[in-house]
Structures are given as structure tokens and as C-alpha cells.
Design brief:
Blueprint (H helix, E strand, L loop, with lengths): L4 H5 L10 H4 L3 H4 L23 E2 L2 E2 L3 H9 L2 H10 L6
Antiparallel strand pairs: 1-2
Length: about 90
């Protein structure tokens, strides 16, 4: 099974995660519209397109403002490699 971002990053912001009391549930973990995208659960393998994700110790904003960070992210690169030509970026 392929990892979702919260599993890879171990951020604890998935439903029932260790950090939800402090930071809430991540929008990627709740984004049911993206379920199945790049073989992920909810937005877990499409997090770079979802505003409000938590990365680098702070909440990320819109897609346009976070894409520079996201395209350099190790998880983003892994998803692109695993999904190949079928990857939704």
C-alpha cells in the first residue's frame, strides 16, 4: 500500500492522529473529493493542491503560494515517481 502524506510525514493530523487536538485535522486528510487521486486516501497523495495543509511547522496557504515548497518536497517527488505518467499534479 502506498503512503499518504500524513503517514510519510508523521504529522499526526489525520483523523485520530496525535496532533489533532493541537492543530486540528489536516484538510488533505478530510478532502473526500480527492479520494483515490494518485492512489491515495482522500487528499493524502494530492496534498500539494490543497490549501491549509501543515508543513514545515506552519499552515500552508493557497496552491499558488505553496507550490514552490511542495515541488521540492520529498513526498511530492516520491508520488510523482510512483505514479509515473498517471500522476495528477
Amino acid at each position: 500500500m502506498k503512503n499518504n502524506c500524513w503517514e510519510f510525514k508523521k504529522c499526526g493530523r489525520e483523523a485520530g492522529g496525535s496532533k489533532t487536538g493541537e492543530f486540528g485535522i489536516c484538510p488533505a486528510a478530510m478532502d473526500i473529493m480527492s479520494n483515490g487521486t494518485n492512489s491515495g486516501r482522500n487528499g493524502g497523495r494530492y496534498c500539494w493542491k490543497i490549501a491549509g495543509t501543515f508543513c514545515g511547522g506552519k499552515v500552508q496557504g493557497s496552491w499558488a503560494s505553496k507550490m514552490t515548497n511542495c515541488t521540492a518536497c520529498e513526498f511530492y517527488q516520491i508520488v510523482k515517481k510512483e505514479e509515473g505518467a498517471a500522476c495528477v499534479v
